[in-house]
Predict the structure.
Amino acid sequence: MLEKRVELEGLKIVEIEKCKSDIKKMRDEMAARSTRTNCPYKYSFLDENNKFIPRRDAPSYPKYKLSQETIGALRKPTFDVWLWEPNEMLSCLEYMYHDLGLVKDFNINPITLKRWLLCIHDNYRNNPFHNFRHCFCVTQMMYSMISLCNLQAKISRMDILMLMTASVCHDLDHPGYNNTYQINARTELAVRYNDISPLENHHCAVAFQILAQPECNILSNLDNEQFKRIRQGIITLILATDMAQHAEILDSFKEILNDFAYSNEEHVTQLKMILIKCCDISNEVRPKEIAEPWVDCLLEEYFMQSDREKSEGLPVASFMDRDKVTKPTAQIGFLKFVLIPMFETVTRLFPEIEDVMLQPLWESKDRYEELKQIDDAMKEVRTAPSQFQKKKNESLTCETREK
């Protein structure tokens, strides 16, 4: 499955996305962001060292030749995203743009594409969950859905470009603390965006700051009208990933399903919003051994936030509190009330994804419910002796009083 590694002296990049490997360092880095003495706001989460020009030039970007086995696997939701190093993920992303015909259709300079992808990589932070591997994971799932649903025959080339590019950019420069924290802590991002989807607005801004660099502008050969349309489309899709908008977006999509028409631009826009939402939170679609490490990474990021919220006297969500949440309880509710209803809705339009995307979600829910039953049983066993001792003490007290 893995390609034969190309070893280039001095060019081997240390894998920093293995999310559980250096948690202490991550905590220190994230905590340090809020202690800048020159910050005019209570907390600043703007990365002052954003790298809008890649640290390496494209010629030094190793080229990996993908095998037919890998190319076939890349189009499936079962693709193992944990097996790849950053350079290999970059090569896979580059291949997707070529394979979908986007490089040819939009006259994208191949070297510019390489530089853009390098710059994208450099602008994802080393968070436990919201990192470059997550970016790759979401984009690979989008590529898979485009293939499985035969979207190239149903929507425009520009729509495909929007979907792929929004997926690549959707969490750029994520600080590792969610919108609720940004707003409650009155961070610079919250102030800048008036408490309205501060993170998603920031991801959009960073995406277009990168594209504003001529050496990274994969959209440079579009005319003004095309660029405006692509820009608006990408912004709409990235903003749709704010989970605060989840119910509204899903309900709107349900309303148009019975009369859905690919000729209706508004219908297609709502479809694209649902597709990027599906891909953004699609980890449980993947096999257990691929999906489960992502849960650990997400919980670690949640716990880092809730620990900080406690220390700062801010509200703490129970699903992020290390003293209250377990892996099964975290996933059961998310699967039952968010993931499964959304994928069931999408399956009405694309029944071909039921076996490969919806079925794994049902199986994952069943597995976590079984784990919860085991946890509950073990909890009862642990508490049983103390309950027995309590009753025994009460009995002895009664006997003493009678005497």
